[in-house]
Amino acid sequence: MRDGDVSVVALSAGLRQPSSTRMLADRLGQATLSALDAHGVTATAETVEVREIAHDVVNAMLTGFPAGGLPEALEKVTHASGLIAVTPVFGTSYSGLFKSFMDVLEPDSLTGMPVLLGATGGTPRHSLALDYAMRPLFAYLHADAVSTTVFAATDDWAGDGDTENPLPERIERAGRELAERIMRTDRTGPADLYDDVPSLDQMLRP
Description:
The protein is α/β, with parallel strands linked by helices. It contains 7 helices and 7 strands, in the order E-H-E-H-H-E-E-H-E-H-E-E-H-H.
């Protein structure tokens, strides 16, 4: 991994502006950059707001062809060194907008991608969606999700972090985990479907 080639992309599926989902994505991005910097790794960070390309996502689902701002967003996400995926939780799962974006990704485009999972919701009881909905989704996509997930309920944004509000500490720990996973992973882009296909010369060898 060459210094300066590291890119961290935060995928935020918040539905409003301002959005607590975007705020959590930004905090996780900052924590990851700080952890990388502590190891002497210079990285860049970008945020993809799914809300801004929502119509393009729907059109791609209907036509099968990405257009508008969607191709650029897909390029950023699939070529990132590490991904931070944050969604609001409705009921017991991720938002429809978040899932729609994931549905327009090419198969295997997140294979081996270090991913940090985050979610926001009104009450802590929705936090189970991270392990029961988001983690299985990224496992299906063959992404490499870090152990620590971060859920932020409305009340978690109050205070500076203590035993009653561990959000800041959890954000910092999750950022460190993603940074460490990125440094151990040499990923420059999505997996090539033909990487494991033998050449004609190999097939003709006795």
